[in-house]
Model the fold of this input.
Amino acid sequence: MPPGAQLLGREWLGFDGEIATVRFEAQPLFTNRHGTIQGGFLAAMLDSATGLGALAALPATRTVVTRTLTTRFLKPARIGPITAKAKVISQTDRDMIVEADLIDANDVTVASATAELRVLDKR
Done:
């Protein structure tokens, strides 16, 4: 697992053919001066989730890189588990658009994002 994924406490929960589910563990060291999770960590979680959502829908011979990530912070996020749900919205041979939500332990959506990803052959 990549070091960034380890830092975020990333855990793959599965793919049902449409939705990829990933859990992260928001640590106390991720907090800002308000005691909530700093937005950069939430953006990193969303970037990871959209990438994994794309990979789940692609053959093992292909990979993706993020071109853009439009992030929306909706509610304060707290320390603890945060679950991401990611779904492919559109796909061509070269590009994908994936949307993801971050949902806290109280089932509140705290952030969401839309990612534009470039699809590449693995080398």
